[in-house]
Specification:
It catalyses: DNA(n) + a 2'-deoxyribonucleoside 5'-triphosphate = DNA(n+1) + diphosphate. It is an enzyme of class 2 (transferase). In addition to polymerase activity, this DNA polymerase exhibits 5'-3' exonuclease activity. The chain is an alpha/beta fold. It contains 39 helices and 23 strands. Helix 35 packs across helix 36.
DNA sequence: ATGATCACG
DNA sequence: ACGTACGTGATCATC
């Protein structure tokens, strides 16, 4: 950023602004669990002022010891003096680190408050003819305002940050006293937060009135007999010494004994690579745009060579193969066609008879049909190379060659590489041993990150800054980027390969340190292959049946819509919660269950309470249900059917905080089952000809995991006896003989069991059961009496979470919990529930992942045609060849139940059928 | 882009 | 005094 020459000095009251930012912004944390909101807010305020002021000099002043600046900070915070919040304290050194990285002068001095530093520097600078701006959230600084020193006070408002500016004249206008007199006003009225006693009985109004007339405490004292409120007059005399002392305390030092080298505070470019790296690390994505940094040159640009043809690529690859590097970074560029493009392609080809290209058979023969390949980047951790290439066989040739040399391929997305490189019927040349997924490994180390991209890894592991895809290419697709910015594209691809190759080894060491190397090697990495095959396989959908289903919904929806309009007396958008709320609660005057920030809540549980009294509500509920089924499932699924007649959902391995996998485009993990009408959707999921579905789901896996991890004998006993677990809980909690447990008792006990797994809270349980919080609390107490080890275990998890900042599953998967160190009670409470839930949910997730890998590998090893298609958290769906049915069932039973050795047995329920509906 | 709602485990 | 059950993703409306 080019600085205009000016004689402007910007001074920032560091702690004050940091504090402002901290309380003005919601708690932000980065993936590493660091709190960042204050630093982020500070930078925003600083940039905003710099943009308008364009100063040539800048200095930030801090108090020497953070706790000594306690004062005004918490004055606005209910007047109580708490220790500085931990989340804020942590950010003080971070802020200084950022400022230092930006080359900004940071000043602090033992025994001096920031106020005194600011005052002194301002005077020094003004004496040298500078224009000074002091930024602070503290109005006490107004006493420093002159004709050449401006006090800027940022205000965080809804619309953004607004800044109030005060020169001496502005102070006089706003407060009716001069900046110097402002001291006397404060001395009279006092300030508890600052330990300034003031004069009793004199508040802001009286103080201002007195000083604006007499201009100083001394003068007011002399004229005490004329002072207006008699009580003030009396007290000014009686407490005169105290008033004088207060004035001394309130006065900011402007001649402090410091050396301040103005020239050293001259601004150069603050957008340095170091600052950029910090912005990346702390995830200040909005600020990155301010940095002009292009691909940094510290990775030796000239090391990148560009190959135009396959031959030179092969030559380079051979060269790489001879090298010593144990990891070869790999970056495959691909673009998955959208459903729309498939549609267009099919239509276009329809006329000239090439539709067969997109039939199911063709695709299963050569899954690469799905991709457009643009090229490949390779790196050995020193040199990198990008080779444009659209023929997958050239790529596989090179990779096979590298693998034959014993190299390991490290890349950002092994699953896609597998899908691209491994046509179904060919023997797979990518194996567990010769690939390494940098993103999946990073997910284990930092499971809370939103994205796993090379540039973040570069700054974390290598300390270098690389622009992200969007920074260079904006919203361009890969194809557009390659077309319009070939040079940058080359650089980008090369960097990605370079980073993967460099990071892999370091990351592996981190995994070992954190004792997650086994988890990675034995579970997550093999799982990549399992998921790739599941995605390639897809699941057959009966498109016609799906359309009929949608049609049926449509018919009823039209009826309901009209009925609702009639009942409401007008037409409106039933899908709009806002409009619906107005109709129900204002126009029709229903008793307002008020909720949500934006207005009335119209959520199902609210409407259900109204349904018995208002027929329209029942219709709306039915309408909602049908609309959901139609848009999300009937239409949503239909849009995802590939030309092969199947749906190829994506399974995400780096998304959830607990270690579960998730499913997208479409989500096949939330297909309706609870309501019969929704469950019917499952009839459109078919096995292919000659195959049959086998669906196996774990029975109570989370409670079994809990019984194992807690070691509670009562829970273990129930599982060992094969008892109905909710009935058993009811029996123990309600002191009822097992056989005499009522349905209601069982239902309540079931809710309690859920509560335990979720991280119990009386409120949550009471809401779920529709009972009072007190009753719910009693249930919980009784539960812990019945299961003595359970409280100990759950408290232990919370303690562990607080101690280590993270909790672990049985297999060592970690879940950081920054919420536990929050000063916000609710946040902390949330953290405690996470600490209780994550090890349980996560261990169950680990176990089914192990089962998936084992099932997948056995199907493969035993040469079966049956395939694993879906995972739904505690359930696996297999498409089994009919002849293989017995062996498939055996495999499922053995591998799912044998996936973990717990003190209680793991059991599954299994069903077969010719639709997913029938297999449940 | 965000919030509300609702589908699943 | 506060205001909550844990984990996801898709859709629609609204900003």
């Amino acid at each position: 950023m080019k600085q205009e020459q000016s004689n402007k000095l910007l001074l920032i009251d560091g702690h004050s602004i940091l504090n402002r930012a901290f309380f003005g912004l919601p708690d932000l944390t980065n993936a590493a669990g660091q709190h960042t909101n204050a630093v982020y807010g500070f930078l925003n305020i600083m940039f905003k002022i710099m943009d308008t002021e364009k100063p040539s000099y800048l200095t930030v002043a801090f108090d020497e010891h953070a706790p000594t600046f306690r004062h005004k900070m918490f004055a606005e915070y209910k007047g109580t003096r708490k220790p500085m919040a931990d989340e804020l304290r942590q950010q003080v050194p971070m802020m200084k680190q950022m400022l230092t990285a930006m080359g900004i002068t940071v000043i602090s001095k033992e025994g001096l408050e920031a106020d005194d530093l600011l005052g002194t520097m301002a005077r020094l600078a003004e004496d040298q003819g500078m224009e000074v701006t002091i930024v602070s959230g503290d109005r006490d600084l107004l006493q420093l305002a002159t004709d050449h020193t401006k006090i800027s006070i940022p205000k965080t408002k809804k619309t953004g940050t607004e800044i109030e500016n005060y020169y001496a004249a502005d102070v006089a206008e706003r407060y009716l006293v001069t900046p110097t007199e402002f001291i006397d006003v404060k001395a009279l009225m006092g300030d508890t937060a600052d330990n300034i006693p003031g004069v009793p009985g004199i508040g802001e109004k009286t103080a201002t009135a007195i000083i604006s007339q007499y201009h100083s405490i001394e003068a007011a004292h002399e004229a005490a007999d004329q002072l207006r409120p008699p009580r003030a007059a009396k007290n000014i005399v009686e407490f005169y010494d105290q008033a004088v002392m207060s004035k001394e305390l309130a006065t900011i030092e402007v001649h402090a004994d410091i050396t301040y080298d103005l020239q050293a505070a001259r601004l150069t470019d603050i957008f340095t690579p170091e600052a950029y790296a910090l912005c990346k690390e702390w995830e200040f994505k909005n600020l990155l745009g301010r940095f002009q940094i292009q691909a940094p040159r510290n990775v030796a640009e000239d090391a990148f060579s560009q190959a135009e043809d396959t031959q030179s690529l092969t030559a380079f690859a051979e060269e790489l193969a001879k090298g010593q590097a144990s990891y070869i970074g790999l970056y495959l560029a691909w673009r998955q066609r959208s459903a729309k493009e498939w549609e267009d392609a099919s239509l276009a080809k329809d006329g000239d008879g090439q539709l067969s290209l997109f039939t199911s058979q063709k695709i299963s023969e050569d899954a690469c049909q799905e991709y457009e390949i643009y090229g490949i980047a390779l790196s050995d951790g020193e040199k990198s190379l990008w080779a444009p290439m659209d023929d997958i066989s050239c790529i596989t040739q090179v990779l096979e060659h590298l693998i034959a040399q014993g190299k390991r391929l490290a890349c950002m997305n092994v699953k896609e590489a597998i899908k691209i490189c491994t046509p179904h019927l060919q023997e797979r040349f990518l194996h567990y041993e010769n690939v390494y997924d940098v993103a999946v490994a990073e997910y284990l180390l930092q499971p809370l990150k939103n994205t796993y991209v090379a540039e973040d890894l570069a700054s974390e592991y290598l300390g270098i800054s690389v622009p992200g895809y969007g920074e260079t290419f904006g919203k361009r697709s890969l194809a557009q980027a390659l077309e319009e910015m070939p040079k940058e594209f080359c650089s980008y691809a090369c960097y990605e390969a370079y980073i993967c190759s460099r990071v892999a080894g370091m990351q592996w060491e981190s995994l070992k340190e954190k004792q997650m190397d086994d988890l990675y090697r034995d579970v997550e990495l093999p799982l990549i292959f399992t998921l790739a095959d599941m995605e390639l396989e897809g699941i057959v959908i009966d498109a016609k049946a799906l359309e009929e289903y949608g049609g049926r919904l449509m018919g009823r929806l039209v009826e309901l819509e009209q009925k609702i309009y009639d009942e409401a007396g007008e037409e409106f958008n039933i899908n709009s919660p806002k409009q619906l709320g107005l109709i129900l609660f204002e126009k029709m005057g229903m008793p307002g269950g008020k909720k949500t920030k934006t207005g009335y809540s119209t959520a199902a549980d609210v409407l259900e309470n109204l349904a018995p009294d208002y027929p329209i509500v029942a219709d709306i509920l039915e309408y909602r249900q049908l609309a959901k089924l139609k848009s999300t499932y009937a239409e949503g699924l239909s849009n995802c059917i590939a030309p092969d007649g199947r749906i190829h959902s994506s399974f995400q391995q780096t998304v959830t905080a607990t270690g579960r996998i998730s499913s997208t485009e479409p989500n096949l993990q939330n297909i309706p089952i609870r309501m019969e009408l929704g469950k019917l959707i499952r009839k459109v999921f078919h096995p292919k000809d000659g195959f049959v579905f086998v669906d196996a789901d774990y029975s109570q896996i989370e409670l079994r995991v809990l019984s194992h991890m807690s070691g509670d004998q009562n829970l273990i006993h129930a599982f060992l006896q094969g008892q109905d677990i909710h009935r058993s809980t009811a029996s123990l909690v309600f002191h009822t003989a097992f056989e005499d447990v009522t349905e209601l008792q069982r239902r309540n006990a079931k809710a309690v069991n859920f509560g335990i797994v979720y991280g119990i809270s009386a409120f949550g349980l009471s809401r779920d059961l529709g009972i009072s919080k007190k009753e719910a609390g009693k249930y919980i107490d009784d539960y812990f009496l019945a299961y003595p080890r359970m409280k100990e275990f759950l408290d232990g998890l919370v303690a562990e979470g607080k101690e280590a900042g993270e909790v672990k599953t049985m297999y060592g998967r970690i879940r950081p919990i920054p919420e536990l160190s929050s000063s916000n009670f609710m946040q902390r409470q949330f953290g405690e529930r996470i600490a209780m839930n994550s090890p349980i949910q996560g261990t169950a997730a680990d176990i089914i992942k192990i089962a998936m890998v084992h099932v997948h590998d056995r199907l493969q090893k035993e040469g079966l045609a049956s395939r694993l298609l879906l995972q739904v958290h505690d359930e696996l769906l297999i498409e089994a060849k009919e002849e293989e049915l017995p062996v498939v069932k055996k495999i499922l039973q053995e591998e799912m139940e044998g996936a973990a050795k717990l003190v209680v047995p793991l059991t599954i329920d299994m069903h077969t059928g010719y639709t997913w509906y029938d297999a449940k």
